[in-house]
Specification:
GO terms for molecular function: ATP binding; ATP hydrolysis activity; transmembrane transporter activity. By secondary structure, the protein is of the alpha/beta class. The protein is built from six helices and ten strands; from the N terminus they run E-E-E-H-E-E-H-E-H-H-H-E-H-E-E-E. The chain binds adenosine-5'-triphosphate (ATP) and magnesium ion.
Length: 232
């Protein structure tokens, strides 16, 4: 298994109150698969994703990604892991406002070990014509395309997407989902995606439903649907 999580626990403590955010999480995802995490607000989706991505740490349990137990890494190793292996896409793009589209992607490729070509990834997200624009000159969907290009230019093993279509309209959401599916096919990138939209699960190989810090359902989807055929 490419991602192998078992007995993962995470609590936040404020004063005398212990908030058990992840209770006893187990989940698996194979290399090259798309996984979708569904669940209500506050159920622990982002916390789980951030631990898998090395942004946060679990309290106990096992989190193995591509054979490495990331809970055992020290802070420097965890930073390297995050930088070299993980691409992140967030709901609100997080582009650097005073850098052009091309520069936003170059700053990542410059610090990557085996980056893809900047123009290639711009073409892959169909933003090659807007390389010299600034983020404020782009629509939300275009900014999300750039943020996906920035996430994949480092040629990450794992692409983590936290509600990537959360701020986008219907048609734009579908084009972003299609793009993620293309990235998965073209580069073989394993993708784990959080969404509130259960319809999106149709494009995933595995679906995880989180409730109150627990996986209440893990399903294998043998008949994945192309993103452009998903409707909601
Ligand atoms: N840094 C933190 N300190 C304290 N509590 C936190 C912290 N981060 C998250 N929590 C708590 O953990 C719980 C789960 O948060 P999380 O962000 O993982 O939820 P989520 O499923 O991603 O929700 P949403 O759909 O709203 O994004 C929430 O109750 C939240 O308040
Ligand atoms: Mg969240």
């Amino acid at each position: 298994m490419f991602i192998d999580v078992s007995s993962l626990k995470k609590s936040y403590i404020s004063g005398a109150v212990v908030n058990e955010v992840l209770k006893e999480i187990g989940m698996e995802l194979d290399e090259g698969e798309i996984g979708v995490i569904l669940g209500p607000s506050g159920s622990g989706k982002s916390t789980l994703m951030n631990i898998i991505g090395g942004i946060d740490r679990g309290d106990s349990g096992r989190v193995i990604v591509d054979g490495v137990e990331i809970n055992n890494l020290n802070n420097d190793q965890l930073t390297d892991y995050r930088r070299e292996q993980i691409g992140f896409v967030f709901q609100f793009y997080n582009l650097v406002p005073n850098l052009t589209v091309g520069e936003n992607i170059e700053v990542v490729s410059n610090i990557s070990k085996s980056p893809l070509n900047v123009d290639e990834v711009l073409a892959a997200v169909q933003m090659q014509d807007k390389k010299h624009r600034f983020p404020r000159e782009l629509s939300g969907g275009e900014q999300q395309r750039v943020s996906i290009a920035r996430a994949i230019v480092k040629n990450p093993k794992l692409l983590l997407c936290d509600e990537p279509t959360g701020a986008l309209d219907y048609q734009t959401s579908r084009s972003i989902l299609k793009l993620l599916q293309q990235v998965n096919k073209k580069y073989g990138t394993t993708i784990l995606m959080i969404t509130h939209n259960a319809a999106i699960a149709a494009m995933a190989n595995r679906i995880f439903k989180l409730r109150n810090g627990e996986i209440v359902e893990a399903a294998l989807n043998q008949a994945t649907v192309p993103a452009e055929r998903i409707e909601w």
